[in-house]
Amino acid sequence: MVTSHDDAARSLLLRRGFALEYATLGWNVVGIVVLAVAAVSARSVALAGFGLDSLIEIGASTVVIWELSGTGEERRRRALRLIGGAFALLALYLVAQSTVALAVGFHSRDSVLGIVWTAVTALLMFALAAGKTRTGAALDNHVLRTEGHVTFIDGVLAAAVLLGLVLNATVGWWWADPLAGYVLVHYAVREVREIFSGHG
Predict the structure, then answer these.
(1) Which of 17, 31, 70, 180 could staple 46 via S-S, CB 3.0–4.6 A?
(2) For residue 43, which of 114, 128, 123 has the smallest C-alpha distance?
(3) Residue 137 CB neighbours (<10 A)
């Protein structure tokens, strides 16, 4: 028997789920602008790729918000397929850019803005991921729980890009930047597989 207390608890959890998704959405919207500026000024493959990933993550957060709102399943599936296609294009772009950068010995510039942004992003994504996982488990909501995992991976990607930027800036390992791009490729390909195999 469902009580008013259960309804109130579920309503609170839903509000928390929405708040976590809107926080992720807002951060990624701002991130696109910040990363675009940082990528252009530093000529960084990894920052450009991470900026494109942030754009795709906006779509993923939107899908979860639709799901929490009880929007139709067909609309959610269509959106997921579009996100899968976007990840596939991201992977192709990063493979091409990272390979060219390594082949010609392309040196990106130092990026203080990129370092600060990716460091803060990594910490924030890990915190948001923990909140989504707990809230999704309490709601028994597979989509929110899964998106919590995606947000955690986003934090890992931010940390990988951060490492590449720091190594380039501190010890001159210019190749660390395109290598960080390959980390993003691995993630993008995995997301494409999961989405189009019906597990996204």
Answers:
(1) 180
(2) 114
(3) 14
Of 111, 115, 101, 60, nearest to 83 (Cα)? Answer: 60
Is the pLDDT at 122 greater than 90? The verdict is yes
Give which of 121, 146, 126 is closest to 60, Cα–Cα: 146
pLDDT of residue 119: 96
CA–CA separation, 199 and 11 (whole Å): 27
Contacts of 105 (CB under 8 A, 6+ apart): 174
| Sign, Cα dihedral of 67, 28, 115, 41 | positive
User: Beta-carbon neighbour count of residue 110 at 10 Å?
Assistant: 16
Q: What angle do CA 146, 147, 148 make, to 5 degrees?
A: 85
Sign of CA dihedral 72, 77, 83, 89: negative
Q: pLDDT by residue (tens digit) across 59-98?
A: 778 877 877 776 666 766 776 777 777 778 878 887 887 8
Question: Which residue, among 110, 121, 113, 120, has the nearest Cα to 177 in the 3D structure?
Answer: 110
